[in-house]
Amino acid sequence: MTTIDKTKPVLVTGATGYVAGWLVKRLLAEGFTVHGTVRNPDDTNKVAHLQRIAESEPGTLRLFKADLLTPSAYAEAMQGCEIVFHTASPFTSNVKDAKKDLIEPAVLGTRNVLEEANRTTTVKRVVLTSSCAAIYGDNIDLKKAPNGVFTEDIWNTTSSERHQVYSYSKTLAEKEAWRINEAQSQWDLVVINPSLVIGPSLNPQSTTSESFHIIKQMGDGSVKTGMPELGFGVVDVRDVAEAHFKAGILPQAKGRHIVSGHNAFFRDLAAALHQRYGKQYPIPRRELPKALIWLVGPFINASLTREFVSKNVGYPFVADNSKSIRELGISYRSIEESMVDTFQQLIDEKLI
């Protein structure tokens, strides 16, 4: 069991991120000194929200410049830290070469941070932000899962450089983390595997993320004709941050944790908005036939390949989140609370 000294600083990589913002707030509220790494601490547009949080909480925030793909870039920020929360992850929507643009940066970034943990003698625990994408690639994989449920014992074996490359990159990055962890005995590794993260953002610039794009489409008329019958897990960003926090400070925390509040379909997200916003906004109310999506999907969205549609649309997502409830004490928010808070933020920021 790893006992953490709360008077020592903790590191949060990628501190301006969607999940990281809520984690930084939680740590500061608890009185921690937080070392947050960002690409450019002098870019006030990117870090202003973190400075505002720090002013209203008892903890102390120190920002450090660090690039995920530069070896030894985290040495200064990690100095004296007992916990490293590695939330930073390279992300690009402009993928021309899957290996070069997505896979290698994901693995290299993880390696750089964890090898720095090996060199920093104070580090006792690393909490890694992975993904349910490291557990499964397509919903059809559920057919092969024991008892028809995704659990922490399962690894994604169906994604590749050709199909579901983002999921493949997350799988390889988490496997690299476990490889480095098992080769040493100084620090233990606790992994958080969230599903689709929704909920309000503390950073106005995070409202450009994929989950905000999905929810925005429900209000701007883009999908008013209907949605695919696509199953997925969904979880509130504040619950994901709490899971990271608990994974860092609880002595008994260990291994992987599926952090997913609900097994859902797009129709469930839309239904959560109907009562409050259905009269003012074109919230979708019907599902489109799979055959239609298979036919026109590739022309509407590059990610809706026919292989993706075949292996995902019409299939549920079913995951067991009991370990996160039992061992991390997570109590999940309702889909309605998460969706309303997100949708209202988009309205307030005039994005809908």
Automatic annotation (TrEMBL):
<protein>
    <submittedName>
        <fullName>NAD-dependent epimerase/dehydratase</fullName>
    </submittedName>
</protein>
<dbReference type="InterPro" id="IPR036291">
    <property type="entry name" value="NAD(P)-bd_dom_sf"/>
</dbReference>
<dbReference type="Pfam" id="PF01370">
    <property type="entry name" value="Epimerase"/>
</dbReference>
<feature type="domain" description="NAD-dependent epimerase/dehydratase">
    <location>
        <begin position="10"/>
        <end position="248"/>
    </location>
</feature>
<dbReference type="InterPro" id="IPR050425">
    <property type="entry name" value="NAD(P)_dehydrat-like"/>
</dbReference>
<dbReference type="GO" id="GO:0016616">
    <property type="term" value="F:oxidoreductase activity, acting on the CH-OH group of donors, NAD or NADP as acceptor"/>
</dbReference>
<keyword id="KW-0560">Oxidoreductase</keyword>
<dbReference type="InterPro" id="IPR001509">
    <property type="entry name" value="Epimerase_deHydtase"/>
</dbReference>
